[in-house]
Amino acid sequence: MAVRGYFRARRTLAERLRELRRASGLTGTQLAEGLGWAQSKVSRTENGKQLPSEEDIRGWARATQAPEDVVQELLILLNRARSDHEAARGHSSLTRGFSGLQQDILAFEAQASLIMDFQPAMIPGLLQTPAYARELLSLPSALPAYGGAEDDLNRTVHFRMERQKVLYDENKRIQIILLEGALRCRLCTPATLLGQLDRLLIALDIPALALGIIPFTAQLPVLPLCGFDIYDKDVVNIETLTREEKIRDPGEVEKYVQIFNVLTEVAGFDDEARAIIQPIMRELAIELRGT
Questions:
Q1: What are phi and psi of 61, to 5 degrees?
Q2: Residue range 165-216, pLDDT digits in tens
Q3: What is the arithmetic mean of pLDDT over 137-151?
Q4: What is the pLDDT of residue 101?
Q5: How far apart are the first and last CA of the chain?
Q6: HSE-up of residue 18 (Cα within 13 Å, Cβ side)
Q7: Hey, what domains does the chain have and what are their CATH numbers?
Q8: Contacts (Cβ under 8 Å, ≥6 apart) of 165
Q9: Per-residue pLDDT band at 241 (split at 50, 70, 90)
Q10: pLDDT tens-digit profile of 123-136?
Q11: How far apart are CA 247 and CA 217, in angstroms?
């Protein structure tokens, strides 16, 4: 029922947005230009392929001169689609294992226009190599998530790699901030970590991605207790050892956005990030030659 409700609410929302655009006399291209979007984002939203954020809906409403009561109707549809989707995801993770959860995260990331990810102690899924993901998921702490079943582990790694396609979507903005400790944490073998760091160097050249690294020498402006993801500044996702926690309260979400922004201010990007990654790679290479 939740899955059917999710798609029904999502379809109705898409139809209402399309009706507003047509009633205003705007073409999809004109609306996209007015909002500063790619035309494909308007098309995906109207076809129900991408769930808009609250900010997207308010911008759409302003561009089409929709009254406030219509805006509230659209936001109710959006919240209904999200709530039913979360229920569907919960059912999915129980019936399809950890790989099912990865599929659901893939769909969630595909809908988001802006992804903000902070990780203090590990490389996030969007940047992991298959070897790093496999060794990470083979740690004892990860076993409860998929029960140690080899076939579910293989599917989980597969879908985690599929998620990385969003990095090359020109309609998305992805910001990832890591502590230097995430680059050094031995969650895998030295050879796997070396390959993972090489992947980070390549990722620095991805146009849609802003990858920042906070060095050990930086004065941290906040206490980084845990990693978190922010989607469209509407939803915060926190992953614990046993489950995922979703935060939707606007006040709480804004606090996480503020924390992410101050962490960004002390992070190094581009050449500064390379200057942090490359010495660690040299250390690993020396270690591997000595074994």
A1: -65, -40
A2: 999 998 899 999 999 999 999 999 999 999 999 999 999 999 999 999 999 9
A3: 62
A4: 63
A5: 56
A6: 13
A7: 2-83 (1.10.260.40), 112-289 (3.30.870)
A8: none
A9: low
A10: 999 999 999 999 99
A11: 31
- Predicted confidence at residue 105, as pLDDT, reads 72
Identify whether the C-beta of residue 201 lies closer than 8 Å to the C-beta of residue 193: no
Closest CA to 111 of 163, 49, 47: 49
Distance (Å, rounded) from C-alpha 169 to C-alpha 184? 29
How many Å apart are CA 110 and CA 174, to the nearest integer?
12
DSSP string, 127-195: G--HHHHHHHHTSGGGHHHHTT-HHHHHHHHHHHHHHGGGGG-TT-EEEEEEEHHHHH--SS-HHHHHH
Q: Is the pLDDT of residue 62 over 60?
A: yes
Residue type at 251 in one-letter notation: G
Tally the residues of the chain: 291
* pLDDT of 29: 92
Mean pLDDT of the chain: 85
Residues of the chain above pLDDT 70, percent: 84
Question: CA 240, CA 242: separation in Å to the nearest integer?
Answer: 5
Q: Closest by alpha carbon to 140, among 212, 222, 241, 229?
A: 241
Contacts of 12 (CB under 8 A, 6+ apart): 77
